[in-house]
Design goal:
With 280 residues, this protein is of the alpha/beta class. 40% of the residues lie in helices and 25% in strands. The chain contains eight helices and ten strands. It has a four-stranded mixed β-sheet with strand order 4-2-5-10. It has a four-stranded mixed β-sheet with strand order 6-9-7-8. The longest helix is centred in the first third of the chain and has 20 residues. It starts with a strand and ends with a strand.
């Protein structure tokens, strides 16, 4: 049994909150630079150039990439040979978020109730998804998810008879309806399968994967490519200025489902799709 102090979890999460909000995944930077060279529209080129410059300044000066530093979402994998000393996992992560957002001078965006709207003052509570494995390690993945793009996401319970075409049509409909609101170029996390809540969780998890890593299943890897091509053919373009790049990447995660269903969730994320994974 490996003993890990909860203070280490808290310190790790604090640092992740600050780092992830100031640094983009290299795959996104690379995709933005590639898109800048590909697009013909002067307005689109200018928007992409400013986006890259913004990311470079954020990393260099250690300031947030976007003023919306998001709702703190975590995917935590816990090894069965790990024993946490001190606080429980929920409390250790919550303390880390509180310290990270306070000491990092990150915007606090969370309200304590959907209707009362009182700000919690430290961006807590976080949303935490747990899973377990046979290791003696803890893997923490953090996504600070902004709501300009989150608000344009959608979920639909398709019928099995809708098949692949139904999934693609729903994704295109969701992106087209969103238009320029989620600050394109966007990244799409798509969850397919499970049930109502599971496909939404899968869509969020898909955003934690670098966009240069395709789904390991060839069928879904091909579907990611097809959807990306179809989305970019919509012509919305960077910041809605038109052009060849409405989306930088499409990531799909799938899960077994019921014989009567084909659940699909589309989690839209702006170019500032921030995430970081740390293994303890």
């Amino acid at each position: 049994m490996r003993k890990i102090p909860s203070s280490l979890i808290t310190e790790t999460v604090k640092n992740m909150c600050i780092y992830a909000n100031c640094n983009l995944d290299s795959s996104i930077i690379s995709a933005l630079c590639s898109a800048k060279n590909k697009n013909q529209s002067p307005a689109a080129k200018a928007a992409l150039s400013d986006t890259v410059k913004n990311a470079e300044i954020a990393a260099k000066k250690e300031v947030p990439i976007c003023q919306d530093t998001g709702m703190a979402v975590f995917f935590v994998k816990i090894g069965k040979s790990v024993f946490l000393e001190g606080d429980n996992f929920d409390e250790a992560i919550k303390k880390g978020v509180s310290e990270g957002y306070t000491k990092g001078f990150l915007r606090k965006s969370i309200v304590s109730d959907p209707f009362m709207r009182t700000n919690t003052g430290d961006n807590t509570p976080p949303i935490i998804h747990y899973s377990f494995n046979d290791t003696d390690k803890i893997e923490i993945t953090f996504l600070p998810k902004g709501f300009g793009s989150e608000n344009k996401s959608a979920l639909k319970m398709l019928n099995p008879s809708d098949e692949k075409k139904g999934v693609i049509d729903f994704v295109l409909e969701t992106v087209e309806k969103a238009g320029a609101s989620p600050c394109p170029p966007i990244i799409l996390g798509i969850g397919i399968g499970g049930n109502f809540e599971k496909c939404a969780e899968l869509a969020k998890l898909a955003l934690a994967r670098s966009i240069d890593i395709p789904n390991p299943n060839p069928f879904y890897a091909d579907l990611e490519k097809e959807i990306l091509e179809r989305v970019n053919a919509l012509g919305i373009g960077p910041q809605g200025y038109g052009g060849e790049t409405t989306a930088l990447g499409v990531n799909i995660e799938a899960f077994p489902t019921h014989i009567a269903g084909l659940p699909v969730a589309v989690n839209i994320s702006c170019h500032a799709t921030r995430h970081q994974t740390v293994i303890i």
